Amino acid sequence: MRLLSLARRLYSARPFAFKHIIGYQHPSLFSAQPEIRCHFFGAFRQPSVRHCSTIPPKLPFFSSGNSTSYEIINFDKCVDTLREKYHDGVNEFVGIAQKASDFGSGDEAILFLDECGVKPNQELVFLVIWELRDQWKLAYLLFKWGEKCKCLEENTWCLMIWILGNHSKFSTAWSLIRDLLQMSTDIQEAVLIMIDRYAAANNAGKAIQTFQILEKFSMSPDQRTLLTFLNILCKHGFIEEAEEFMLINKKLFPLEIDGFNIILNGWCNIVVDIFEAKRVWREMSKCCIEPNGTSYSHMISCFSKVRNLFDSLRLYDEMQKRGWVPGLEVYNSLVYVLTCENCVKEALKIIDKVKHMGLRPDSSTYNLMICPLCESSKLDEARSILALMEEDNTSPTIETYHAFLASASLEGTVEVLNTMRKAGVGPNGETFLLILDRFMKLKQPETALTIWLEMKQYEVVPESAHYSLLVGGLLECRLYSKARELYVEMKSNGIDDPGLRKFLEPTGPRGQGDVSNPEHTKKGKLVKHERHKVIRNEKHRR
């Protein structure tokens, strides 16, 4: 209640700042009576078409944004549990597998693997295929060799289907699923992986069609399979399709709170569309679905991301009145929105309350204060929060230091990089990509080149994104000789960028495309002139 009173006082003191948040009402999202003027929370309490008979919970419930997970196999976790046991053997076997790719036929390559002297087992084959996931042909060769040696488990089949889907080799992946059917193996997880890969390939129609053909495999999808399917669609941005599918099939799969929470999570945390989130909330009321703690967590998270302090605190108060005890993710959302609205003291009080409740603030809690403070160039306050973070024995993460780098000078950047190295949290390639992009946007190419030299001292190997960003920025700043020098270094490292090639490589016998001559460029773009044509200025034409 005290926080809600604070929000009301802020609204009274700054009504114009809050007007765009709680005063505006989208005509298609609220009541059809234009003469009724109400705030957003009135939309939550609109009378529904049907009258629901529900019993309010008597005991408090703890909410959690991830209370029930509807995910497919997490291959990263599987690899982490096995990597320590087979680390050296995997690297050695990957090198042997690379040599097998030199053979002309698959039979010769498999014969070479048979004679390499490595004794295969299920875990080793799984790890080697994972390491070769970017080379699908070689991974498929190892898979076939493992099948010949009878060293394949169900997770390995799913991993190979996932790799083939990543490279859009869906027909080959379906052949593996047919092989599993002939072996009388449960293919539900494999089909869900196919759905996930279709959605990742931006093909929602194929993903939905794949779910619908489960019945052709004599498999009746249950409620959990449906929720996993909805979660896959939402995760890849197909939230409208997921909601439509859920509502159309409500006779086969009765509407439940978990399904609405998946849709709500999509609008609140993946797309961050507050209008759609409010519409789904009202749709829940029409379908007689009572929101639970997870529903409130998603809505509070969405309001905080759009920096709507008033409704974030109002829903937090309503959540407690209905008997749901907020989890740490709710308090993290409040900490963020309070900091964004210059209520740092109140955000610190939230952290103290979390500690008194027996919850431990994590690195995300403090990062959600540090990031908006750094964005507002309040570096002193951000450093004080960092000091408080270290006093609470919470280790800063790489995101913590990235927040400070977003507004640091050259000297400050070097200082942050040294601190990151001492703390053992980087810097990595993403760190330098962020720094180079910032200084290039500030039109400071000399500073960016200094950071480029520092990058090599931190043993970070430049990748294609680093070269493309730096060379492109130098071209925009008309530093053509330095851009060409880095482009030659980029090519010598086996990296190519077609977008830069047309600017930095000759396009004809006389090299009209060479940007080393500034007269043939204009604002970083080539100006092609016809051969043997004299270019005259306006005075000579007259």
From TrEMBL:
Chain positions covered by the region annotation Disordered: 498-542
Pfam families: PPR (PF01535), PPR_long (PF17177)
Gene3D superfamilies hit by this protein: Tetratricopeptide repeat domain
PROP1-like PPR domain residues: 295-429
Top-level taxonomic group: Eukaryota
Record keyword Repeat present: yes
Each PPR repeat, start to end: 292-326, 362-396, 463-497
Biased composition (Basic residues): 522-542
InterPro entries per UniProt: PPR_rpt, PROP1-like_PPR_dom, TPR-like_helical_dom_sf
Keywords, sorted A to Z: Repeat
Recorded family membership: Belongs to the PPR family. P subfamily.
Protein name, as recorded: PROP1-like PPR domain-containing protein
Gene source species: Solanum tuberosum
